[in-house]
């Protein structure tokens, strides 16, 4: 973890992150460790320490995403600044995959960051959550199509044939669609306030 000399009332979170404009694919992510104090945040990347005051935080965005399946979820907090590249923090390990030991650290970091932003005064900062609107609509359409295939069609066949076996593919389809439906619902595009975090986006 980088050696960040913390100012007064600071806490260092050993969370992994990447910086906009830099590499996002690593065998092992070398970027980890962010210090949060009452005035701002600091981190080290590529051997150089960076610091941003809370007054330069333009936006904070929370989101979750499934990696391969809806049970393998990664949480992300993107912090955008008025005068520098954005930093995206996650609950991933150095491999870039979700890690149960990293999730509590990530959760504590996000809560501490929002609490200090609120205490500092963040009227110019926008807080958003969820997917991009276009992605949300696309996924919503895909789930409607899946519902027609896995639910409406078997029920129609059951009414026509009376064969209860048609309920088997319906049950299988529901077991596949429900986790994705929950993920979509949790990631509905919206604004939030720093004193009311979307807990469903914090694993």
The structural class is alpha+beta
CATH topology of the largest domain: PH-domain like
**What topology, given as strand order, has the largest sheet?**
4-3-2-1-7-6-5-8-9
Number of helices: 3
Number of separate structural domains: 2
Strand count, sense and barrel status of the largest sheet are: 9 strands, mixed
- CATH level 1 name of the largest domain: Mainly Beta
- Average pLDDT rating: 85
The coarse silhouette is elongated
Along the chain, the helix and strand elements come as EEEEEEEHEHHE
Helix content: 25-40%
* Radius of gyration, whole Å: 21 Å
How many angstroms does the end-to-end distance come to? 23 Å
**Per DSSP, what share of the residues sits in E-state strands of 2 or more residues?**
25-35%
CATH architecture label of the largest domain = Roll
Residue runs with pLDDT of under 50 for 5 or more positions? none
Please provide the count of β strands: 9
Describe the protein in words:
This protein has 203 residues and is an alpha+beta fold. The chain folds into two domains: 11-129, PH-domain like (Roll), CATH 2.30.29; 134-184. Helix content is 33%, strand content 31%. It has helices spanning 102-120, 133-161, 167-186, and strands at residues 11-19, 32-36, 40-45, 48-53, 57-67, 69-81, 84-90, 126-129, 190-191. It has a nine-stranded mixed sheet with strand order 4-3-2-1-7-6-5-8-9. A hairpin with a 3-residue loop joins β2 (32-36) and β3 (40-45). The longest helix has 29 residues, at 133-161. The model has no long low-confidence stretch (mean pLDDT 85).
